[in-house]
Design goal:
heterodimer, A: mainly alpha, MetI-like fold, 9 helices, about 80% helix, B: alpha/beta, 2 domains, six-stranded mixed β-sheet, four-stranded antiparallel β-sheet, 10 strands, transmembrane (chain A), MetI-like_sf (chain A), transmembrane helix (chain A), cell membrane (chain A)
Chain lengths: ~250, ~270
């Protein structure tokens, strides 16, 4: 990574902050209409302990939900990728499930497992984020060119061997593409639960309390904190992708 | 004549489609002696690729028999190597690792270092020395096809099945690869079946050319090729070769239904 790669994104963030500040200042908006970047440091200074505790709650529940989504999504994708019948059977069901706005599912889940706030939150994060993973894995597997299979099948390799040696690695680029989408979705899921069904846990609850008290700087501070966590997780996925599917990246000269 | 290594007797096969059975092979006969190299030519869509899958044991014919080395083919056998028009190299592996892939499946007595040594030797044979650690995406189409060829023979198969391996290459690269094939055959003897659309390729590489009829395919014509000695491209421009090519071209036209088979009409 050279200096340019570091400086350019930082410059973009600074410029964005300045424009935001300018917008608020030019319109003369007071704090209870729109907070400006200069309101954020005081908000963080005042509530930093809450941010740490609740930020951690949001983060771990998102990650657990995401891990479940990966396990379930990969399994479902494998089933749909290898069996045409299962694909035909499950696809409409899956699309229908995905089409339901998760905000409507939140109250149902909250009532279903009332009191189990951690479980509920993880469940919503999971439900919202497994779909892209399942779809990408199933497409990756079902579009595997027959010659790839024949190369090993003609030597008498078992289906399991073909899966581990060829199908799985070949699907990794699609899988990581979906995982980048799923990371963001999982955050949305966690926060939906924390906001709609507040139990005083997570950044969503902090956001909700900011809303109740008309504390706009706090609400915006939460949004920025969420954005930072989202970026963090996203780049964790990017780093993993580099390690496991770096081969898919072509060098620019080709 | 030495023992027949590949024997296909009266094979018939039909695919089940929505519109009913679609016969692709109907009365196919083919015999390749040990060390022989047969080229199969025919109009497109005449079932040539089905033939390769039958020999490889990847599917069973409806009727008829496929024999390899005196044993009836019932399923895939590790004594077969395959290469296709698409080199299907695994992009996450280096060229060397790609070539060594079959040795991970087929039982082998070679130690890891011997396996690597063998793969390196084959890569050097086809002119890919120095590219062992490259990824497939860093190689040209012709080089990838060379690597694919190494992978097909690394486990010393008795039978090498080549399904239009040079079909997607430009004419000059293709001629280079033809010569590489002769080099490989001299160093690493195999019995081969080559599916191709290229008549020049068929007489340059094979010692037996089989013309299939249009779908459903049967063996329409068999030609023994006698291009003797060290084969180089100039052999394709002798009167003898021109005559062979002419006969084959005529047979293809018959297979396509564009010419009448004079002998059969009588």
């Amino acid at each position: 990574m050279n200096i340019r790669q570091v400086l350019v994104p930082i410059a973009a963030i600074v410029i964005f902050g300045l424009l935001w500040e300018l917008l608020v200042w030019a319109n003369g908006w007071p704090n209870y209409v729109m907070a400006s970047p200069s309101d954020l440091p005081p908000a963080y200074a005042r509530y930093w302990e809450l941010f740490l505790v609740m930020g951690w709650q949001t983060l771990w529940r998102t990650v657990v939900g995401l891990l479940l989504a990966i396990a379930f999504g990969v399994l479902l994708g494998m089933v749909m990728g290898f069996s045409r019948t299962m694909r035909d059977a499950l696809y409409p069901l899956l699309v229908g499930f995905n089409a339901i706005p998760k905000a409507t599912v939140v109250p149902i889940v909250a009532l279903l497992f009332v009191g189990d706030h951690n479980f509920n939150t993880v469940l919503i994060a999971f439900m919202i984020s497994f779909f892209p993973i399942a779809v990408s894995v199933s497409i990756g597997l079902s579009t595997l060119e027959p010659e790839y299979r024949d190369i090993l099948a003609s030597l008498g390799a078992s289906k399991t061997t073909i899966f581990w040696k060829i199908a799985l690695p070949k699907t990794l680029p699609e899988f990581f593409g979906a995982l980048k989408v799923a990371v963001t979705l999982a955050f949305i899921g966690t926060n939906l639960m924390e906001i709609v069904s507040p139990h005083g846990r997570g950044l969503g609850a902090l956001f909700d309390s900011g809303k109740t008290n008309s504390d706009y700087p706090l609400m915006f501070a939460v949004l920025i904190a969420l954005a930072l966590m989202g970026i963090l997780l996203y780049y964790v996925v990017v780093a993993l992708e580099k390690v496991f599917a770096g081969w898919a990246e072509r060098s620019p000269s080709y | 004549m030495s023992e027949a290594l590949i024997e296909i007797k009266g094979v018939r096969h039909a695919y089940q489609t929505k519109a009913g059975p679609l016969p692709v092979l109907d009365g196919l006969n083919l015999t390749v002696p040990e060390g022989g190299f047969a080229a199969v030519v025919g109009p497109s869509g005449c079932g040539k690729s089905t033939l390769t899958r039958l020999v490889a044991g990847l599917m069973k014919p409806d009727h008829g028999e496929v024999w390899l080395h005196g044993e009836r083919v019932k399923g895939p056998k590790s004594t077969v190597g395959m290469a296709f028009q698409n080199p299907v190299l695994l992009e996450w592996r280096t060229i060397l690792q790609n070539v060594m892939l079959p040795l991970e499946i087929v039982p082998t007595k070679l130690s890891k270092s011997q396996q690597e040594e063998r793969a390196r030797k084959l890569l050097a044979l086809v002119g890919l020395e120095g590219f062992e650690e490259k990824r497939p995406s860093e190689l040209s189409g012709g080089m990838r096809q060379r690597a694919s060829l190494c992978r097909a023979i690394v486990h010393q198969p008795e039978v090498l099945i080549l399904d239009e391996p040079f079909g997607a290459l430009d004419a000059f690269t293709r001629e280079d690869l033809w010569q590489t094939m002769h080099k490989v055959k001299a160093e690493e003897p195999f019995t081969g079946v080559l599916i191709t659309h290229d008549l020049r390729e068929s007489i340059f590489l094979a010692d037996q050319v089989i013309v299939l009829s249009g779908r459903p395919a049967r063996t329409q014509y068999v030609m023994d090729v006698h291009l003797t000695g060290e084969r180089d491209i100039e052999h394709l421009y002798t009167p003898e070769s021109a005559e062979a090519l002419n006969i084959l071209r005529h047979q293809i036209q018959i297979a396509q239904g564009r010419a009448v088979d004079a002998e059969a009409a009588e």
